[in-house]
Protein: Prephenate dehydrogenase
Amino acid sequence: MFKQLGLIGCGLMGGSFALAMKQAGLVRRVVGYSKSPSTTERACELGVIDVAAPSALLAVAGADLVLLAVPVAATETTLKSIKHLVTRDMLVMDVGSTKADVAQAARRALGSMASAFVPAHPVTGREVSGVEFADASLYRGCQVVLTPTEHTGDTQLRKAEQLWEALGCQVRQMSPQAHDQAFAAVSHLPHLLAFAFMQSIAGQPEGDAFLALAGPGFRDFTRIAAGEPKMWRDILLTNREQVLEQSQLFQQALHAFEQAMRAGDAQALEDMLTLASGMRTHWRMGVEGATSPTPPQS
Amino acid sequence: MFKQLGLIGCGLMGGSFALAMKQAGLVRRVVGYSKSPSTTERACELGVIDVAAPSALLAVAGADLVLLAVPVAATETTLKSIKHLVTRDMLVMDVGSTKADVAQAARRALGSMASAFVPAHPVTGREVSGVEFADASLYRGCQVVLTPTEHTGDTQLRKAEQLWEALGCQVRQMSPQAHDQAFAAVSHLPHLLAFAFMQSIAGQPEGDAFLALAGPGFRDFTRIAAGEPKMWRDILLTNREQVLEQSQLFQQALHAFEQAMRAGDAQALEDMLTLASGMRTHWRMGVEGATSPTPPQS
Structure:
């Protein structure tokens, strides 16, 4: 399908994409670049990329597909550094967790070549980073949200859809703004809460003793708190309005629970717990309307 | 080791205990009682119990080991209903997630026979309930916290330790108060936060659309929000002072994150994220001091 992938950023996300594309027979050659030369070298050794490029620009030379797998805050600088070699026939994508800023960055950095760029967010990840963890199956079965703008080329959008579907993903389209609102709710806020929760334990003198007692509930609840600090710093700052709004709504819900606890109002507490528990019990990943106990007849 | 287990409450926790005891060859006969006759019947059919008792009291008759696996709020009433058949030679335990209230309930309900009672909290569980999910391996490898008081018999405490160790558990002892403080921090508060988070999504018109996009981070973060509403109502009310205190500390930490986001203070945000992420990365279940990146030399 593609002759050459120019991979910019050879970490977990980028490396896994290269391996998945190769395994699916969707690309012939991968030319990779990472900010850290040792990462690029390691990616070569591991067979994640075929050729190491000395710069982002040179990774793009001759490519018909370009993937940016860099922290979201680095998107604009990276696009600027490659724009002289971006052509109308290329498909350029990112894999960032925020999309309004990325879409704007593409417009600013690429100008009239912005038609080549399709903002993409594959909803997957691990709490480890680095090319050593690159895994051809990372994207299989996950959702990929594409957020085209009025500048996005139709051909590129179609190619992007086909590519992710060929990798076994479920593709959705929405506006960058709708994307950022939804992911503030179901991803960015949970991360913020898990980070803040770990911080509040760390701040207590008995913190270490508490943690030694923690069980499987704690393990799962806090798994996302092991996320990469720089990556999450960028996401929380980039999407801060939406995240802060979701945090306010969360705190209102928390205060309602606390109020019922303080008042000893067992019925009110049980009602809220029943709603939350039922909703979570019926939720299924990637299935719309799965949270309603009695889904409407189709 | 034991001739007869009197099991009061044949749900997930009680049923799994009976199966584990049988599988380990630690008990000859299990007499079970559940509030719902259909549960007791099902427990018989599934081989979880050998004989169904028509009351909690009759489940205790002839037993040398009694396990209460009922919601924590039902502990006192249940102990009162069996006290006439509790003897000094018996070992009576519970499996509740709060311990100060349980220890007090035992003293009030059992009086001079309180020496037979050892408050126990096996740190395990599932987000499903009912005897159908009873599993002989539920307790294997988990921590069990025993919270003896000045009334607890030495013989009973020793027997309790041996029993849980024989089931493959790691046994710890602490005061009921220290237990409740620690579990408010690492278990009850995370549950409250996960429940409140689901509630805040439920309260938004776009909630269902958001949930359809949620990925593996959301899945793990909210797993505990599927917990049994009545059980968590009781835990949150029983241990509310400690939980509310932990919730305050959590909200202070959350506000510090929000403040850094509002101020666009990338360095402060990164510092907090680094601390939280490092702590979670180094944490290992059941290992003391595992959260320090450089553990002290022993």
Q: What stands out?
A: Residues 176-202 of chain A form the longest helix (27 residues). Chain A has two domains: 2-174, 178-282. Chain A touches chain B through 97 residues (CB under 8 Å). The domain at 2-174 of chain A is CATH 3.40.50.720 (Rossmann fold).
